[in-house]
Amino acid sequence: MRQERVTFPSGELSLEGMCHFDQGNGPFPGVVVCHPHPFYGGNMDNFVVIAVCQALCDKRIVALRFNFRGVGRSEGKLAAEGTPDDVSSALSLVASMKEVDAKRLGVCGYSAGAIAAFSKTPLDDRVKAIAAISPPLSMAHLEGLSAYLGPKMVISGELDNFTSRQDLERFTVTLNEPKECHVIPGVDHFWWGYEDEVGARVASFFVRALKESA
Q1: What's this model's pTM, rounded to 2 decimal places?
Q2: Are the C-beta atoms of 22 and 53 separated by less than 8 Å?
């Protein structure tokens, strides 16, 4: 695996990120991974975010994790749950990479990263598959996720601190097909000790979903 630190524009701001590449020239699918709440220390170096990116790379998918505006070395004013504009800019960077097939792009959001990625509708039409890890449904309705017609996965812990299993399952019923819902026993919102499992499940989903969209 090769990692490369990158900077890219989001409007007039410059954001920082880290891109994970597998060996080979591709083109490979590409996935943008959005970090959790910056007000609680969330950033692109979150251990769940890194585990997901490593698992994607192991499946020959290019993965980009990045800091939303105001986080780390990314310019701008800190926003509570990031901003969808930054997600769109990250997608543009991934789509421009020679190693990436721009027709096979996905987005993954962890916790508040799911709010930034999926809170608004319509979702960027370049996105062919989406995954929400521990979406905090008590904080946002995630209209973008509800309206999305492509393949989607929702995964959370049975003991999640912000979304109960019942609320997650009720929400998933409202989603359009195709969809997957995974509730992992013994896991809370933070995935301590289970980061490899969530990474593997998310990566396997994108392998299936982005292969189908080719």
Answers
A1: 0.95
A2: no
